[in-house]
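Forwarding the complex inputs:
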Amino acid sequence: MDITIYLQLMIGGILLGGIYALVAFGLSLIYGVVRILNFSHGTLVAIGGILASLAYTDLGLPPYVSGIALVLAFGLFGRLFFQFLLEPLSARTPKEAEIGVVLVTVGALLMMSDIAAFLAGPTPKNIPVRFDPIELGDLILSSTQVYALAGIILLTVALHFFLRYSWFGRAIRAVSQDAFGATISAIPGKTLHGNTFAFGCGLVAIAGVLYATMFPVDPYMGFSLTVKAFTIIILGGIGNLTGSLLAGILLGVVESLAAFLIGSEWAPGISIMLLLIILVVRPQGIFGGKPA
Amino acid sequence: MKLSRVALLGMAAAAIASISAGLASSASAAPRTDKCAGPITFGTTISATGRNSTLADRWVKMTEVFETEFNKDGGIFIKECNKSLPIKIISYDDQSTPATAVTLYERLATGDNVDFFLGPDWSAVSFAVSQVVERHKIPTVMSNASAANIWTRGLKYIFGVQSTAEGWSNNYFEMLKGLSPGPKTIFFVAQDNLLTKDVVAHFSKKAEAQGIKVIGSEVFSPELKDFTALALKLRSAKPDLIYIASYDAPALPLIQQMRQMKVKANGVHEIMTTGKLIRTLGKDAEGLSGELSWLPGTKGDYSELIERVLKASDVDVMDYLWTINRLNAYLVMMQAVERAGTLDRDKVRDVLDKGTFKSPVGPITFHEGGISDVPAFTTQVQDGKAVIVAPPSVAQKPFIYPSPSWQ
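Prediction (whole assembly, two chains):
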């Protein structure tokens, strides 16, 4: 078999994995700090992509402009969502709160999908910005994906420094490592939880915009993205952004190779198989135990 | 620990859903006692939301308009009552999901006590619903259900106005026979779905029988967005023809990435080349061939009523490719009830079993198993617009082969 085919598959997998990782960042932060498994996370990616697509095609707004607007809008949405739907559950018993979180986030997933389909239509949409592909002999690389991956790497580095050196970042890490200790150190736990949820939702908006520049997005694709994001945070370690990036790339490469070697029908199931294998063999994740 | 609790919660939800469906199915679907008190009720589900809603969401409005327009002409004359009764179509959203459709048909049978069923659409949904139909013995005219296994189980109460997967691309393959030089090789790509896999299974054999060598066959999940691997397979296989059996939405990223990866062929066929797909693909759609059931302007029985309904409900058949089958299901059922002259379900079933019914696409007769054989036209995108290229009797332009756009 031609080596360039495998090279093409590897590069395609890396580009795909980058976007998976970005989807997982927000979920990883939210779970690491607030301990909420947000099942509607992937649907927010889809809605971000749909809104950015409509902004581009109907209003002529370039993706970076709609991206900035969506980060703010999703951040505000996340804060309100947490304040009014999730935070009240903390008054319940831990078990009730846990079930309540699942019901609220799964309910949000279903409602947001249908509302988006009703308002924007169920047809897949993308942001049709096209740059000439990069051709290296038989290798054809999507310039859009290459730029997106470069952006994701920069964002990962920026987030890493932000979480390491800013007060907010240090507070997030403190709460994720020892919530009780953080509270007696005067870190306002409830406010921080709400702000982290908002921050995670803002990150999702960036993922949605970048995703829509590469692939079509539709209102019903959210759940499978959430599953991939779960897989990545298990592989990469909860709250570990570098681990998430590497895990995303690993997932992307494995999916690409599996689609070629086993068949395309198996590619979406790979994340589940990987998740199960890691949970059995190395429950702390491949890159786990080293939060940002 | 937390993950396992979540999993348990999911299992509990599934168990509750199963119990609910079981309870619903234990009720019986009683036929009406007062046979001449109108209206005659028909129950159906439409995929207004969910994955297949791109092909069906406007059918909700269309069904309401059909009911209004049909009743304007007096409804259905019932001989047994010696009067015409208006029709009432009760429709719910099945969310493109078989399990939801099953629950809703149970509700239509036992809660709404409808007289007859119409629809649903899509093979996977129809297959699941066929069990409900048989259990309650309610005659049903299904609209878009082509998978062979629906029609080969000896079920008595289901009838389908669309041909099986075996008739899907007949005109296309007939047209290929006449090409000189014709295609020598073909690569099949199917969405993981009952219908599309059936279509590929049948036409793979047909291609071989016509002397076109099948050099590849690949199935993909509708969830898949990154088609790099598949595009690479197609690029290295270098087939003369690429035949894609997929709904329009999952096919979109596939075709976009085939173009991006510079996949070449003499022709590319996608069985559901809708107006939406063509618009979204833009110039990438040029040369793509596909299938279409009917076009407005083609004269036939009830064509005026149908065009009125389509106009009032703002349905473009290029965007909603299988609309005519939906409407044909309505027309056939109305004719069957009128011919039976009664609302007795078994008598209406017998009429459906033996009769030939008028429709805009020509006469519809049900063969063994309950399926008909309504043909589809072959289309090709030429200068950005889909035109009919086969069969010759209705072709608007000649088929362009090899397609310069794909070479």
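Chain B has 13 helices and 17 strands.
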